[in-house]
Amino acid sequence: MSFRSIEQLLRRNSKIKISQSIANGIHDQKEEQSVQTLRESLLASNQLPEKFDDHHVLLRFLRMRGFNIIKAKEMFLNMLKWREDCAVDTIAKDFKFEEFDALKRCYPHGFHGVDRFGRPLYIERIGSVDLSKLMQVTSIDRYIKYHISEQEKTLSLRYPACSLAAKKHISSTTAILDVKGLGMNNFSKAAREMFIEIQKIDSNYYPETLHQLYIINAGSGFRALWKVLKAFMEARTLKKIQVLGTNYLSTVLEAVEPSNLPEFLGGTCTCSATGGCLLQDKGPWTDAGIIRASKEPSARHVDPTCGRKRTLGMLLLEDNQVANQMSGNTHQKQANEQISGKIQELEDCAAQTKETLETLICKQKELAIHIEQLRKLVRDDVLPEKNTNIQTLK
């Protein structure tokens, strides 16, 4: 937390508890400075909609661009333009994907629980896709709109619900891609076009929402295809991808509990009562209690970094009214400890500064003495020389 953040908290006359503001405003100092710089730049040109005036949102764009403020701002503005051109808000609100059930039958995919950290777990059995049927039940354009609507749902519902359930900020997804049987021969032109467009959307407009991708059952055919696909992906994204063969289970289980891993991937979940693991969208976001909590008025806080209201899903979610974990007194105690720690830090800094100043003053006095001594030597040497010259002239 920066000194400026503490100062803003002390000045704010708000009904929001100071402990909540401090808890929600604690970020890495360097990251916070970068976010604040980007935010001020966007506000100066009136290019920061309230919906995106959020520490974690801006941080995603900064991370994707290596904390280069200019590049991050350009990427952010491109995202806003894309959302306007494609009417993304309208898609998120009104788009109806009537062919959903038919799509699931020929393209098994979906969210299924969470990883060990609490992130949403997304699974695709892309090697089992019947592409000819897929193109019969939908079009590339409609599938892309469906993909966008799912991304929006993840941001607005899945991440906030997972954050509540895990009692910590969640803003990325763990994914498993089963490519058994997939190779160059069955990766058609339509499939390539769809992959390239979706990759572009995810990288450019939903950056840093992938935590880890496990590509499993990768045979020789897929590995040849992978060499081609990598050319369309960001270097930062590629670092988050592990390509595994058939002996993938031990690696995947390091990230996912067996109970959250479908049986067909080596886990213990069958979801037989609901028609299969990839059909029910299983996760904290389907818990009625969590959904109600995320919509309560108390689930909106003021973030000292941005100074505006933010949704619960974008916070650390430590408020006692929402997570029911800590009492108000505990929050106040933590707040006092935070402020006391900052005061002590500043007092130590002031003491060190005073000591440094006293040392510099002593040095200044010593230098003044040395300068005067040198000047005296010069005068003593010059005067005899002048007297000698005068005697010679006489």
UniProtKB/TrEMBL annotation:
Topology relative to the membrane: Peripheral membrane protein
**What InterPro entries does this protein's entry cite?**
CRAL-TRIO_dom, CRAL-TRIO_dom_sf, CRAL/TRIO_N_dom, CRAL/TRIO_N_dom_sf, PI/PC_transfer
Natural source organism: Triticum aestivum (Wheat)
SUPFAM superfamilies named in the record: CRAL/TRIO domain (SSF52087), CRAL/TRIO N-terminal domain (SSF46938)
The UniProt keywords, alphabetically, are: Golgi apparatus
Q: What is its main location?
A: membrane
Q: Where in the cell is it found?
A: Cell membrane; Golgi apparatus membrane
Q: What is this protein called?
A: CRAL-TRIO domain-containing protein
Biological process according to GO: post-Golgi vesicle-mediated transport
